[in-house]
Amino acid sequence: QVQLVESGGGLVQAGGSLRLSCTASERSTSDYAMGWFRQAPGKEREFVAAVSWTGHSTYYTDSVKGRFTISRDNAKNTVYLQMNALKPWDTAVYFCAVDGDRFTSAQAMTALRPDFGSWGQGTQVTVSS
To answer: How many whole angstroms from its chain centre is CA 35?
Structure first.
């Protein structure tokens, strides 16, 4: 496992933008898919977006397609989530995750179990209407 530290959350008005960052420490994550999940109050954690270990493919949940963009910088062991046109229902705690298996696809991250891979502590995103 690796230590993951998220940043960039905050309070924003609907229609605004935020950029989340997640940096891994202790070892390189360049061989692993990385992604973002979120959990709203009273709801289960859900997949948001992922990027493959190469950075060449991405995968998004339907509700964020066209608004969110995931990217990674392997030299910095960091994954980003650019969130535009934010909506009140995007309000949630956002978690960064790294797959436990190497060389997997972005789509494989949709099935990442909470007890597998590495997870950050989460960063709060609040979108006001």
So the answer is: 4
